[in-house]
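Appendix B, record 7
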Amino acid sequence: MHQNIEFLTIHKLFEERVKTNPDSVAVKFDELTLTYQELNNYANQIAQHLLLYGIKTESVVAISLERSFELIIAILGVLKAGAAYLPIDPNYPTERINFILDNSNSSLIITNPKLVKRVSFDPQKFFLINQFPFINKETKNLNANVSGDNLAYVIYTSGSTGNPKGVMIEHKALVNRLLWMQKRFPIFEGDYILQKTNFTFDVSVWELLWWSFTGAGMCFLKPNSEKDPSAIVKAIEKFKITTIHFVPSMLNLFLDYLDLNSNVTLTKLKSLKYIFSSGEELKIHHVKKFNRIFKENSTLKLVNLYGPTEAAIDVSYFECTRNDDLDVIPIGRAIDNIELLILKDDKIANVGEIGELNISGVGLARGYINNLQLTEEKFKAHVHNSNKRMYRTGDLARLLPDGNIEFVGREDFQVKIRGFRIELGEIENTIRRLEYISDCIVKAHKITEENVILLAYLVSSNEIDEIKIKSFLKNFLPDYMIPNYFIRIDKIPLTPNGKADLKNLPLPAAISSIKSNESVIKNIDHIENQVYQIWKEILQTDKITLNDNFFDLGGNSLLMGRLQIVLNRKFNLSISIVDLYNYTTIESLSKFITQLKPMGESKIQFKNGNRAKSNTDIAIIGIAGRYPKAKNINEFWNNLVNGVESISFFTVEELEFIPNTNPDSEIKFIKARGVLEDADKFDAEFFGFNPREAAIMDPQHRVFLEVCYNALEDAGYVPDKFDGSIGIFAGSSLNSYLIYNVLSDRQKQ
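Structure tokens (predicted):
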């Protein structure tokens, strides 16, 4: 262990690096950048503001934001204030967000206005970061009383009882994990990590924070691009990415994209040094495909990582070899200051014996937040030292003769699907909330190595309405936990010892017969048949009709990505993922492709670079504005026509509260400016703000929101009355003269 690791915190390591690399690029997002110094300044401003809310050491602050500069600023700001950050996906169901906020006793949530009306939370505890008046000037670091024993973050994972559980990770556990990674796979100034993992999953923690004490940088992938291999390739080439992470299923899709797109040359990926993979089992065929595709780049490393959320991201690693003589890809050996124990009947298992993998060491979580019973159940005393703890993973493993560890499977009902950790019990208990369901069981069914789906078996005297059940579940569960099929059964079959007999549960008709010789579809045209053959191969079923929904047949976001790759190659098009989500049946997708085929009529770009003609005309149907001495457009026009003076002039007495307005001031202050009437009359509740947030907003921002709504009213279209999309073209700017030339001078007084 690092001799001072118990005193180290991640934000202090970042602050030390700011001193040596103030002007180095820390974060990139599209064309924008933040230096280490700028990021530190903004994070300090957030931290100072959090103190006004009473945030202190061990406080839990929820963050619900998309990938953005605001996200990393908020995370560092929370840590600098001494608190732990709690990531919440803005797309989570409302009930799930409400539960997490309540269960964690969150002191505050940093988010954007659209979440305010969705959740049941104290209005005074919303911090709307997009309204915060950031100023790019050097600020002092806080001296919060934080040590390695204090909480750094809390991440919620699926829980078997029907609700998620919050894992508490301390600074020393996080710092240990990141220091090991830097020692084993060093990065420096000029290296960039691509941040693409949803920040509610612990892989995101090293993506978001590893670079921060090394001089390297991080680049945000645009939101909703993480399943798009073409977008990832473009980001790697554009930002010269050196370090990236994939769950194995997404890695496979990425490699398939490189395989099927000859136009994607490996020179676009020449900056890559490390590809890390974790979240589910890395298979031998993944590694062989990687070795074949990157055979000319012998310096690029593929590293298999393993670890549960309960042990600071990862606890073991295995560097994949360029030889194809392995029969299995192990999870490897323990990282620094971590001990891995394989126990059988509470004793250390022999080499080759299968047992439960247990973890001990500095990386262990403190436990589950506000759940002492589950903490005591999962975190036990060390088998050899009662003063130490160990975590029971529930994973089955065995020690190989060469000292590496092989993952074998699970001993319970936790599954991993596309990298998502899912407790089947949480789904089952949520389904049982429906009064007409007397019992249920959910199982994972493997169609192929890359396509695992969820099947829900329901015991009910009523007919099953799948649409209504899915709609109900979406109030509580994220999309990846919604079963693909719901099958009504009379009773759950049992084995002789009374356990559920999963092998005797019937498969749904759509997947019960795979690859039969006869197609369900008859009398289809050429394009439909080609699309059908592609679907058949990808979904591994021929039980498909023209109007079956891709997702109802077991499709998922990764298979959608594979569909995009194959379709574009087959038809020589550039169909986007968005297009595929809009056309989810063979019939609608075939019609869409047919419309695109004639060159010149396409609404999207073909690979030869030709673009279809498009109509870019727009109709302005509403307009609004606020001006000095003019509350609307009509008054403004009348003032112009009549030559009305709209500038307000002030006496020295009226400006006494502003410094440097006296005759002896070094600054020549002009005692005149445009003033907007009623700028102080802002209906905070109407716009979804709490009074405290409204009070710190720039007055221009408040007026800006009011004018936007005035424009909607002038057009006769307001969101509450119209279900379609409404576009508003608006402009505003920071009142920079007042901040930089006037108010900033108070520091000199």
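Remarks on this record: The two ends are 49 Å apart (CA to CA). The mean pLDDT is 82.
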